[in-house]
Amino acid sequence: MFSRLQLSIIDSHTGGEPTRVVMGGWPETVGNSVKERTVFASENHEGFRRSVILEPRGSDILVGALLLPSNTADFGVAFFNNVGWLGMCGHGTIGLAATLADQGLITPGPTTLETPVGTITFHLAENGDVTLNNVPSFRRTKNLAIEVDGETYVGDVAYGGNWFFLVTSHSFSITLGETESLTHLAWKIRQQVNRTHPEVDHVELFGKPLDPNNDSRNFVLCPGKAYDRSPCGTGTSAKIACLAEDGKLLPGEEWLQESVTGSVFAASYQPGGQWVIPSIRGRAYVTGRGVLILDTSDPLIWGLAP
Ligand code: PYC
Predict the structure, then answer these.
(1) Residues near 257 by Cβ (< 8 Å), separated by ≥ 6?
(2) Ligand 1 mean position to 91 CA, how many Å?
(3) pLDDT at residue 2 is higher than 80
(4) Omega of the bond prior to 306 within 30 degrees of 0, cis?
(5) Centre of ligand 1 from the C-alpha of residue 116, in Å
């Protein structure tokens, strides 16, 4: 005897980076906060995370967003990927906003969102742009030098909702034709950085923008070895925190961050003492609505290994 579980999902992309929002069908999570519910899901619902993200229903580049109830905000969300759960996700928040608008659950204006690492506000504009005011972001370590294959790379460890190692000193070109070698390099860099900074799970490499109107171009390697097709909202927040501390970006000044695919986020910040509150503006497009079917007789019900 077999049965079928069904998860309703809405897919979108933000600057090329996909988000899959789980609107319903996920088993109940328990907790007084989104953080507690996320811990509960990570301890009890790993199969569901895998089903939604991994092949054959998903792909390594997908980021999931589990819509959760919140006691304190308009909505709650827990983001997840091919290897686990994320603290925050900038492109995913913009994708979630487009999804909620698509469903008539929000209208232009501000919405509060509880995430496992804090409550944020995002603002949906009439033209569909979304600006999110992120969690407090800051730099932990400046100019950390590490060695990979006999080369020295110097970077900063910074937080923007997730932990990043940000590297400007390298000789690679940030182009789509180079994503394999960039992935290889970023992965090795992460392994070295993790010797002293185990919290770092994203590596961000910077280069000159292809569009001279932009300020910088980046390549971001995510925890499960997929690279971000968008400029990465939390990675751009970490960058903004470093620029602010170095006096290279003033409060309210705009920073245009281009991704390896050419998509752009506009970022700025307000100072907040020992950290900054970054604002990230971008746009997401809904790409599909559907139902994932989890057939209990399917040997790949919980996704392909790993
Ligand atoms: O936009 O913050 C982001 C993000 C994190 C991982 C992938 N995208």
Answers:
(1) 214, 215, 216, 217, 218, 231, 236, 239, 264, 265, 266, 267
(2) 5
(3) no
(4) yes
(5) 14
Spatial contact of 277 and 251, defined as CB atoms under 8 Å apart: no
State pTM to two decimals. Answer: 0.97
Q: Encode pLDDT of 102-116 as tens digits.
A: 999 999 999 999 999
Question: pLDDT at residue 223 above 90?
Answer: yes
**Percent of the chain with pLDDT strictly greater than 70:** 99
CB within 8 A of 119, min separation 6: which ones? 70, 72, 73, 112, 113
Which of 214, 176, 175, 206 shows the shortest CA–CA distance to 189? 206
Question: pLDDT over 90 for what percent of the chain?
Answer: 97
Sorted by sequence, the CB contacts under 8 Å of residue 247 that are 6+ apart come out as: none
Structural domains of the chain, with CATH? 4-129+285-295 (3.10.310.10), 138-280 (3.10.310.10)
Rounded to an integer, the average pLDDT of 4-32 is: 98
**Is residue 181 pLDDT above 70, yes or no?**
yes
- Amino acid found at 286: V
Contacts of 47 (CB under 8 A, 6+ apart): 301, 302
Report whether 284 contacts 16 (CB < 8 A).
no
What is the whole-number distance in angstroms between the Cα of residue 295 and the centre of ligand 1? Answer: 30
Mutate to test the pocket of ligand 1, among 17, 53, 263 (most ligand atoms within 8 A of CB): 17
Catalytic residue set: 89, 232
The CB of 259 under 6 Å from ligand 1? The reply is: no
